[in-house]
Amino acid sequence: MLALVAQLNVVSALGALISQVAAVVLIALLIQRRISGATSPILSLVGSYGIHLVFLISIAGTALSLTYSEVFGFVPCGLCWLQRIFLYPMVILSGLALWKRDRSIADYLIALSIPGMIVALYQHYLQLGGSNLVGCPVAGFGADCAKRILFEFGYITFPLVAFSAFVLIATVAYTIRSQKSL
């Protein structure tokens, strides 16, 4: 079981790296478009299929968090629960948006991503040894918010995986907002 968790940790960390690179590329392309006015084929593709991408990212994040807690038995901490509160509805919202071909969902995805990013970044700070500024919610109920389950490549923690997903979702949602067709 430990070997399977270790393998899933590496896969999760690689997913975070891919999300980070994809978000940086999208942000760079959005800035370039803002400066030059020229759009790229990548932005057009993300604008057209972004809801699909958000749906896949949110499904993967939901499945990953549930696998760690329900299959491997890691008790989620209070901050983990807060991140789940912002991630789980994205599965339903993006799935419904796909079905209805509704691009207006992008604003809601951004609105859910921003607080998710803040909570995830704060927990990442805690897991890297930062001092507890506001306390771990639901103290005594869940696990310690500063305890690391995943630490790969010298900096990737589980909250950083979530942060990377939230940033990519927000960036994709912003790209969807700025495109003309779904």
What would you say this structure looks like, in words?
The chain is an all-alpha fold and 182 residues long. It has one domain (2-177). The protein contains five helices and two strands; from the N terminus they run H-H-H-H-E-E-H. Strands 1-2 form a two-stranded antiparallel ribbon. A hairpin with a 3-residue loop joins strand 1 and strand 2 (156-157). Helix 4 packs antiparallel against helix 5. The relative contact order is 0.20.
Secondary structure blueprint with pairings:
Layout: H1 2-36, H2 41-71, H3 78-100, H4 105-127, E1 151-152, E2 156-157, H5 158-177
Antiparallel strand pairs: 1-2
Helix pairs in contact: 1-2, 1-5, 2-3, 2-5, 3-4, 4-5
Distinctive features:
two-stranded antiparallel ribbon, 5 helices, mainly alpha, 182 residues, 73% helix
Give the gist of this structure.
This protein is an all-alpha fold and 182 residues long. The chain has one domain (2-177).
The average pLDDT is: 89
Helix content: over 70%
**Alpha-beta classification:** mainly alpha
Count of folded domains: 1
As laid out across the biggest beta sheet, the strand order is 1-2
The gross shape turns out to be: globular
Rg, Å, rounded: 17 Å
**What is the element string, with H for helices and E for strands?**
HHHHEEH
Q: Largest sheet, described in full?
A: 2 strands, antiparallel
- How many distinct beta strands? 2
Strand content: under 5%
Beginning-to-end CA distance, first to last residue: 42 Å
- Helix count, per DSSP? 5
